[in-house]
Automatic annotation (TrEMBL):
The keyword DNA repair does not apply. It comes from the Eukaryota. Keywords: Disulfide bond, Glycoprotein, Laminin EGF-like domain, Signal. Signal peptide: none annotated. The keyword Secreted does not apply. This is Agrin. One of its GO terms (molecular function) is extracellular matrix binding. SUPFAM superfamilies: EGF/Laminin (SSF57196), Kazal-type serine protease inhibitors (SSF100895).
Length: 781
């Protein structure tokens, strides 16, 4: 006999009680019955519990009495279990507040209940999603999801995850000069838009209706503005420009299609950043770009009311800010401030006739000056396309679309980045104040370093380092190099760019010369060439077996010094290479010297290790030491001896004169053609060519003294006389000596101090680099 007890749910097994009649020996009223095992599978919440109800009975009962009593008691317990199992999840219908979590507890009698509580402790789960930084929907960065829930629970605000990662990945992300931080498809920050464009003129007209001096500048502008700009046609846009017949509303920009049709378009791309803005229309936008995009599409003017989400925060109920100022929270209090702007390039023409980098910059200017400035149209102001202003002036377009250069008339009360020391030796309140002064005085002044001028006055920096606010440091970063910008160093290293080589030179503490790219042996080289460990850069050599020798070192295996050099053993002690013998041209009989001591072989009557000394009653002449009383100036080329490759000719007055060659005369110093050297006069020269030109012109007893810049002991020049106020005809060239900024005729160059305050050279100002011919300073992008 089978009795069906219940079918509670799919998670509970059928409960079957089996009543068996034993043998025929028993009467119907004295039957043997067994109740077999009842197994119930109970699934509750997070765990699984196996409830075993063992009801194994061997009873000899009277069915109508004893078994009925036992069965009734058993079924009562069974029904309690069924009622317990039929209960729902205690958290199933419970609705917790923002950030709260439902926790299940037991009351001691087997009954479960759910409670909503705020998380108190945030555990770290390593690299799991639960423990990664994230950005919330209110624009706040949190280290983990747990911290977001804690904040949401305490503030009772429904805050969820917007992005995994920082709200603005580019915030506090530093890029090298000339580059911009951009967010890639994975929301990771990258330094881009770093192409370094030459200043050659090959105008192209872009699909945005603007003229660019060359295609490279168009590409950089496209990257910086986050716009898709292609070349519409070669030449300037002024002729047959489709955009000239289209007038775009505020927020729109002109775009020329491939078939030459111009149309106005709104912003198509906004970076995935979370900087919420509550606008005047009562809506919250993820960032300013999306607010402008919405305003453009709906053709309704929308301005920012305050930063943050609408209806929440301290600024939500603060109505005291008059546009263009917006409400920001500082130290828990609302303040009205001018909005901060990024460096995004999306030029707009303001009602004051000035072209601004973007609309935010225009509003910022209006806010700072208190002037009413609104956007007339997108793009550069008419009349300013081809106007180039100098000395920090800006082009202003009048009502007749005529552009003219004017100086800025104000600076913010608080200087950006603080005080600066300019190249005129004056400390300015800010870079803006420096530019204002430079413009009004029509003088070329640039920032020498940040801080006051006296902070670097007595600071002597090692080679390549620059003083900034009293501290010496090497260049920290280099712009991303373009293709084919590699340079080969004399150390045999192939550097991505000249900047990377200069950075390595700075950390090395000595200059690294540039040599032809072919000298930097790549994979085609041969390893283990038995190169000299001291004289060679490494063990590799070319296919011809030539090892890569250090400066002044010669031989296929780089195992000896060139003629005119000495001291290969000094390389092991830190020297760059073999040192020039530095024998006096006037007092020595030959240009080579002893290899261990560097001592030169002197002419008659001259002495000293370099043969540069004479007796007290004599002095050094091009023909050696001569008695002062007996010396007579040469009157013919037979008596005249010229040095440094010069040739003697008779001038119009009938006297002999040494005429220098147009190029450089290297002779035995070819290794110094491209390396900075210290001359025997105590001056540092960019290369041997600079030294030999100066020495040849004045027929000086001037030879290389050592490789690298001139160093002195205890910061004193000892008995070496420094030449002061000396100028060459090439003073306008970059890298040549100068006394003041006026000596450097190259635009965007200034007279910079070297390791010795008395020695200055012309160099490009910050964010500019020298062209290959040394005649131009080209801006880094």
């Amino acid at each position: 006999m089978f009795i069906l007890v219940s079918n509670v749910s799919t998670s509970i097994s059928w409960a079957i009680i089996v009543l068996q009649r034993n043998s025929s020996q028993q009467s119907p009223t004295q039957t043997f019955y067994s109740v077999y095992s009842l197994n119930l599978l109970l699934h509750v919440l997070n765990g699984s519990y196996l409830l075993n109800m063992e009801a194994q009975m061997n009873l000899n009962l009277n069915f109508n009495q004893q078994f009925y009593c036992k069965f009734t008691r058993l079924m009562t317990e069974r029904l309690k279990i069924i009622a317990y199992l039929e209960r729902k999840n205690p958290c199933g219908d419970l609705r917790c507040g923002p950030g709260e979590q439902c926790i299940i507890s037991e009351d001691g009698q087997g009954y479960l209940s759910g409670h909503c509580i705020c998380p108190k402790v945030c555990d770290n789960f390593g690299d799991s999603v639960e423990s990664t930084p994230l950005c919330s929907t209110d624009g706040t960065d949190f280290p983990t999801l747990c911290h977001l829930r804690v904040h949401a629970c305490k503030t009772k605000r429904n805050i969820t995850v917007k992005y995994y990662g920082k709200c603005d990945p580019c915030e506090n992300f530093t890029c090298p000069a000339g580059t911009m931080c951009k967010i890639n498809a994975d929301r990771r920050p990258e330094c881009r838009c770093s192409q370094q464009c030459d200043l050659y003129s090959d105008p192209v007209c872009g699909t945005d209706g603007n003229t660019y001096e060359n295609e490279c500048l168009l590409t950089v502008s496209s990257c910086r503005s986050d716009k898709s700009i292609q070349v519409y046609m070669k030449g300037r846009c002024s002729e047959n420009n489709p955009c000239s017949a289209v007038f775009c509303d505020v927020g729109q920009s002109c775009h020329i299609s491939s078939d030459g049709v111009a149309s106005c378009k709104c912003v198509e791309y906004c970076a995935p950043i979370m900087k919420p803005i509550c606008a005047m229309d009562g809506k919250t936008y993820d960032n300013e770009c999306e607010m402008r995009q919405s305003a453009c599409i709906s053709k309704i003017y929308i301005a920012a009311r305050h930063t943050g989400t609408c209806g929440s925060g301290i600024c939500a109920g603060f109505e005291g800010c008059i546009p263009p100022k917006v409400c920001v929270v500082r130290d828990g209090h609302p303040y009205c401030e001018c909005e901060s702007c990024d460096s995004r390039l999306s030029e707009v023409c303001g009602s004051d006739g000035i072209t601004y980098a973007n609309a935010c910059k225009m509003r910022q200017e209006s806010c700072i000056t208190g002037k009413t400035i609104y956007q007339k149209y997108s793009g550069i102001c008419e009349g300013c396309y081809n106007v180039r202003c100098e000395f920090y002036a800006v082009c202003i377009s009048d009502n007749r679309a005529t552009g003219s250069c004017r100086c800025p008339d104000h600076c913010p009360e608080e200087g950006i980045l603080g005080t600066v020391c300019a190249t005129d030796g004056i400390t300015y309140q800010s870079e803006c104040h420096m530019r204002l002064t430079a413009c009004h005085q029509q003088r070329f002044i640039v920032v020498a370093f940040h801080g006051t001028c006296d902070s670097c006055q007595n600071v002597v920096c090692p080679y390549g380092q620059q003083c900034d606010d009293g501290l010496c440091s090497c260049p920290s970063e280099c712009a991303l190099p373009r293709k084919n910008e590699e340079v080969c160093g004399k150390d045999g290293v192939l550097y991505p760019s000249k900047c990377h080589l200069q950075k390595a030179s700075c950390h090395y503490g000595a200059p690294i010369a540039i040599q032809p790219l072919s000298e930097c042996v790549r994979e085609s080289g041969i390893d283990n060439c038995e190169c000299n460990e001291v004289g060679a850069y490494d063990t590799r050599c070319s296919t011809s077996g030539q090892c890569r020798c250090r400066p002044g070192v010669g031989g296929k295996k780089c195992d000896h010094c060139h003629s005119g050099f000495w001291g290969i053993h000094l390389i092991a002690k830190g020297a760059l290479g073999c040192q020039p013998c530095s024998c006096s041209l006037f007092g020595s009989s030959r240009n080579d010297c002893e290899q261990l001591t560097g001592r030169c072989q002197c002419k008659e009557n001259s002495f000293g290790s370099k043969c540069d000394s004479c007796d007290p009653d004599s002095f050094m002449t091009p023909n050696g030491c001569r008695k002062k009383a007996e010396y007579m100036a040469p009157k013919s080329c037979t008596e005249m001896r010229c040095y440094h490759g010069a040739e003697c000719i008779m001038d119009r007055s009938g006297l002999p004169d040494c005429i220098c060659p147009s190029g450089c005369f290297f002779n035995d110093y070819s290794d110094l053609a491209n390396i900075t050297i210290c001359g025997s006069d105590g001056n540092t020269y960019d290369n041997f060519c600079e030294l030999t030109k100066f020495a040849c012109k004045h027929q000086l007893d001037l030879v290389p003294a050592s490789l690298g810049i001139c160093h002195s002991q205890d910061n004193e020049m000892n008995d070496i006389q420094i030449r002061r106020g000396r100028k060459l005809e090439t003073a306008s060239m970059l890298g040549t000596f100068c006394a003041t900024n006026q000596d450097c005729k190259t635009y965007n160059a200034y007279c910079a101090a070297t390791i010795h305050a008395s020695i200055k050279i012309c160099k490009c100002r910050e964010r500019f680099f020298a062209s290959n011919d040394g005649k131009q300073c080209i801006q880094r992008f």
